[in-house]
Design a protein that fits this description.
By secondary structure, this protein is of the alpha/beta class. The protein has a single domain, classed as Rossmann fold. 42% of the residues lie in helices and 14% in strands. The protein is built from 10 helices and 7 strands. Strands 3-2-1-4-5-6-7 form a 7-stranded parallel sheet, with helices on both faces. Helix 1 links the parallel strand 1 and strand 2. Bound molecules: NADP nicotinamide-adenine-dinucleotide phosphate. NADP nicotinamide-adenine-dinucleotide phosphate binds next to helix 1 and helix 5.
């Protein structure tokens, strides 16, 4: 009998690629913001039960999941993959608080709300919860502070959750991708227009170029599949899977070099003519 895997945010990017790849072996319960049209790309996901919800709206999440659970009392979940997310850029001192709240709501609170609502359907001793974090959960780049805050918080709460659920035999895993080619990059093109009077105008002016450069050097999104399969199938999955072109560099930057040195490197990058103020 096929096992069920829940994945949030399957319309594009990582969520879509995972849903498509895993649907040959598992039944995917996937979240979408709205119903796609009949000819949609969604038909590429072989075995899909779609659920509709807005992750920026707690009531929408509760309503959709409770309806799904009551209509499908027999479904048990093998795995829950918290994938959906947004990146809200901007200088921290100028970022509207509503934007900060939306960032935290979509990337953190909604993930925990989903875990709480679906927890009764996870199978003790077998199931896995996989949270998609980021290298931004290990290293905070300037002008991406809100996004980093959401991912650092996700890392912290996932560590605590893993240690709690170990007591019940449920494994909890973090995936930490660096740049992967998805729409998350192009969604932020034009971001500087939101801060026309910024005191960081000189730096924000380079944002579009940097986003395009990062996107073009990003790894293919399919690189996420093998680590996820390992996390799903291995009897002893790792706590964290770092997916990056230069994993050693990330480890050195985040764990071994004094942070004063890293700060100097970041500022040097910001002031250089290279389109590369995001060091990782
Ligand atoms: N791509 C990277 O380089 C990268 C690197 C590190 C970590 N990540 C993480 O990977 C995850 C997936 O990102 P991605 O790159 O695949 O981005 P993406 O292509 O933009 O996909 C994001 C998904 O989240 C959904 N979503 C966003 N806001 C939502 C909302 N309010 N309600 C419902 N659904 C919502 C989107 O649905 P809509 O289509 O309806 O907006 C989409 O399905 C995120 O958590 C991201 O932080 C990505």
């Amino acid at each position: 009998m096929k096992k069920y895997i829940f994945i949030s945010g399957i319309s594009t990017g990582i969520g879509f690629v995972l849903a498509k790849a895993l649907s040959t072996e598992f039944t995917i319960i996937g979240t979408l913001r709205a119903k796609p049209d009949k000819q949609s790309f969604i038909s590429e996901i072989l075995d899909l039960i779609p659920i509709y919800m807005d992750l920026n709206n707690g009531e929408s999440i509760t309503h959709s999941l409770q309806e799904f659970l009551s209509e499908n009392p027999e479904i048990k979940l093998f795995a829950l993959i918290n994938n959906a997310g947004i990146a809200v850029p901007g200088p921290i001192i100028e970022l509207p608080i509503a934007d900060l709240e939306r960032q935290m709501r979509v990337n953190l609170t909604s993930q925990i709300q989903i875990i709480q609502l679906l927890f009764p359907r996870l199978q003790q001793g077998e199931s896995r919860i996989i949270n998609i974090s980021s290298v931004s959960g290990l290293f905070a780049s300037p002008f991406l502070g809100a996004y980093a805050a959401s991912k650092f918080a996700l890392e912290g709460i996932t560590d605590a959750l893993r240690r709690e659920l170990m007591l019940l035999g449920i494994k909890v895993i973090l995936i930490e991708p660096g740049p992967l080619k998805t729409l998350i990059w192009s969604k932020n093109l034009g971001v500087t227009d939101q801060f026309p009077n910024s005191i960081f105008k000189k730096y924000l002016g380079k944002a579009n170029d940097i986003i395009l450069a990062t996107e073009s050097s990003a790894l293919p999104v399919e690189k996420i599949i093998a680590p996820i399969l390992h996390a799903l199938k291995h009897t002893k999955p790792k706590n964290r899977y770092l997916i990056h072109r230069h994993p050693l560099l990330i480890r050195i930057l985040t764990k071994f070099i004094p942070s004063q040195w890293v700060d100097k490197l970041v500022v040097k990058n910001l002031n250089s003519q290279k389109k590369k103020f995001r060091p990782i």
